[in-house]
UniProtKB/TrEMBL annotation:
GO biological process: pentose-phosphate shunt, non-oxidative branch
Gene3D superfamilies: 3.30.70.260, 3.40.50.1360
Catalytic machinery residues: E105 (proton acceptor)
Protein name: Ribose-5-phosphate isomerase A
Pathway given in the UniProt record: Carbohydrate degradation; pentose phosphate pathway; D-ribose 5-phosphate from D-ribulose 5-phosphate (non-oxidative stage): step 1/1
Binding of substrate, residues: T28, G29, S30, T31, D83, G84, A85, D86, K96, G97, G98, G99, K123
EC numbers for this chain: 5.3.1.6
Classification lineage: Bacteria, Pseudomonadati, Pseudomonadota, Alphaproteobacteria, Hyphomicrobiales
A matching Pfam family: Rib_5-P_isom_A
Length: 230
């Protein structure tokens, strides 16, 4: 089974948790896209759900698949969010934002009663940090923000190269919120909760890709089958 088939398997398993009438957070990325496609098939067959997309790309996918959409201004909570991740540790802490949607993804996950992470099992790691940590920043004053980020890294015992993310066309990648992303190669984050707190305290940081205590379970698809971690 190839990687894409594994992602679809994980998405299909998460779909088992969806009930009629649910208000859903819809994640971003290639794995979340499988979930949206499968959800669209169920909606076409009569399932009544409504979703809040975590990116403009996901909005387009959901519209194409016929999944009805709403916003967090129109509803007061979400029952379940299903999203992918770039890394998942045994405490279900995550690195997210490889697709650049971390800000909306975190707002949606935080507004949700439950978050199921869906992934192929290569995303499962003993310690976060091999995947570059995305930090969404305001372009204004970026030099000062970068220095503050470096200081926060040092306080939390990590260090590594930082680079402003570029889009495929070579221009700076701009998020759906109009911000930039700095990707930090940290290697190993021994205390992700402390680092998350330190980064959140920096004025020029809009959000970071450490999702601490937000995921309720993870569905991991691998060669040996599906593993659900809670
Ligand atoms: C987007 C994300 C994605 O969930 C993450 O990058 C995983 O994507 P994929 O399912 O394509 O591997 O955080 O901001």
């Amino acid at each position: 089974m190839n990687m894409d088939q594994l992602k679809r398997q994980a998405a299909a398993r998460a779909l088992d948790e969806v009930r009629d009438g649910m208000q859903l957070g819809l994640g971003t990325g290639s794995t979340a896209k499988h979930f949206i496609e499968l959800l669209g098939e169920r909606v076409a067959a009569g399932l009544n759900v409504i979703g809040v997309p975590t990116s403009e790309a996901t909005r387009a996918d959901a519209e194409r698949c016929g999944v009805p959409l709403t916003t967090l201004d129109e509803i007061d909570h979400l029952d379940l969010t299903v999203d992918g991740a770039d890394e998942i540790d045994p405490q279900l802490n995550l690195i997210k934002g490889g697709g650049g949607a971390l800000l909306r993804e975190k707002i949606v996950a935080a507004a949700s009663d439950r978050m199921i992470v869906i992934a192929d099992d290569t995303k499962w790691v003993p310690t976060l940090g091999r995947f570059p940590l995305p930090v969404e920043v305001i372009p204004f004053g970026l030099g000062a923000t970068r220095r503050a980020i470096e200081k926060a890294f040092a306080q939390c015992g990590v260090s590594g190269q930082m680079a402003v993310r570029k889009a495929k066309d070579g221009h700076v990648f701009v998020t759906d919120g109009g911000h930039w992303i700095v990707d930090a190669q940290l290697g190993r984050i021994a205390d992700p909760a402390s680092l998350a707190k330190a980064l959140s305290a920096i004025p020029g940081v809009v959000e970071h890709g450490l999702f601490i205590g937000l995921a309720s379970s993870a569905v991991l698809a691998g060669g040996d089958g599906i593993r659900v971690i809670e």
